[in-house]
Amino acid sequence: MKYAKTVCFAAILFSFLMITVFPQTVCQAKANNVEIQTEYLMHRIYARRFIDNYNVHIFQKAHEHAGLTFHRGLTFTRAHGYTTEDDIRRNSNAVGLGPAGMIRWERPISGKLYGDLEFSGSFLIYNKSFPAQGRPWGFMWRIGPRLTWKYTKDNSISLGYMFSHSSNGMRKKNPGHHAFGFSLGFNHSF
């Protein structure tokens, strides 16, 4: 990767801004808006990386501006699978935890149904090198559409379809992987 250091720096800066710069006092919406997303993402694209992700994201709305909402939060991931680089099967099971930020663009469709497009990034620390022959830290980027049903003023459920890219952004020891899958969310305002 020619721009690995730039990507790495941008990801760290994005995570820092989402956690620190958008405090609750700036938030135009309710101060205690929490969203929990759970998802199962199945490996795709890379022929020699068979890694699935089970993720839980907890987000809090931090700022809202011109139809965009900015969220800060935490990501927990459980990766399960293996790689077959050099025709050697290597276990790539790991657990990761780290800060996350999300940007969402939302538009009404009909009544209580809304269409969203969201992008999120998480900086994760893993319990071991992940994937096999990688590093014990990395980034998870997600993007995808989401349908949200706001069934009360303070509660909503959502279903999304996400594309995810995981890698550490470095030139060496960077066996990243891609995954696709469904995301189920629940949002509550206190």
Describe the structure.
The chain is elongated. The model is unreliable at 1-8 and 17-30 (pLDDT under 50). β5 and β6 (113-130) form a beta hairpin. Strands 1-2-3-5-6-7-8-9 form an 8-stranded antiparallel barrel. It is built from 1 helix and 9 strands; from the N terminus they run αβββββββββ. The protein is mainly β and 190 residues long. The N and C termini lie far apart (44 Å). The chain has one domain (4-189): Beta Barrel (Porin). The chain is 9% helix and 65% strand.
What is the subunit arrangement here? single chain
CATH first level = Mainly Beta
Q: What is the straight-line distance between the termini?
A: 44 Å
- Number of DSSP strands? 9
What's the CATH architecture name?
Beta Barrel
Instruction: Give the domain tally.
Output: 1
Shape: elongated
Contiguous uncertain segments of 5+ residues: 1-8, 17-30
Lateral strand order in the biggest sheet? 1-2-3-5-6-7-8-9
Output the CATH topology.
Porin
Proportion of β residues? over 45%
SSE ordering: HEEEEEEEEE
What structural class is derived from the secondary structure elements?
Answer: mainly beta
Radius of gyration: 17 Å
Average pLDDT, all residues: 83
Give helix % range. Answer: under 10%
